[in-house]
Amino acid sequence: MSTLARHGVALGATLTILFSTAGAGTRQIQLGGFVVEQEVTVAVSPVVAYDHFTGDILPWWDHHFSENPVRLWIEPFPGGRFYELFTHAGDGVLHATVLVADRGKQLRLDGPLGFSGNAIHLVHTLDFEPAGDHSTRIKLSVHGAGEVEDGWPEAIDEVWRHFLVEQFKPYVEARTDKTISRRN
Predict the structure, then answer these.
(1) Domain locations in the chain?
(2) How far is CA 21 from CA 6, 48, 146, in A?
(3) What does pTM read for this prediction?
(4) Phi and psi, residue 133, nearest 5°
(5) Tell me: domain 33-174, CATH 3.30.530.20, correct?
(6) What are φ and ψ of residue 170, in 5° steps?
(7) Residues 58, 55: Cα–Cα separation, whole Å
(8) Using CB atoms within 10 A of its CB, is residue 7 exposed (0-12), middle (13-18) or buried (19+)?
(9) Is residue 42 within 8 Å of 173, Cβ to Cβ?
(10) Per residue in 27-56, pLDDT tens?
(11) Are strands 120-130 and 15-21 parallel, antiparallel or unpaired?
């Protein structure tokens, strides 16, 4: 029996937590969880798709905290960072940490992305699978738990669809250089 089950916590249940901030009083937040799943097929190999999804993603990832970031980057190795630099002096934000980096196969990120500052845990997994002649099926799953406000799961679903279908797919398929060198 799991520790959670022994203590009477049911997985998937919505819990209410009270917290206090200095001088601000106490308010309730709703805890919950959700899963978002999507698929898109792109007309490049799994390694090429993975390589364009890591490293410099500023050419196609169009949601950022800074109006004009100087760098938006996913470091493709375990413990790597998905970060956005606002300035050359190093001001910026860490969007996520890379948990799994298996070139051409899987990229797993742990981080809130645009929900930074909220008590939410998001794990984003992208599986890159061969899908015929030089094509790749990218399967995305996002598992979220913690502070979940109404509409957040739908917003995450919409934003990921935007990134995968409207931004990444046309970007990677329009590239004349269908191969890129290994990025570090």
Answers:
(1) 33-174
(2) 31, 47, 18
(3) 0.82
(4) -65, 105
(5) yes
(6) -65, -35
(7) 9
(8) exposed
(9) yes
(10) 888 899 999 999 999 999 999 999 999 999
(11) unpaired
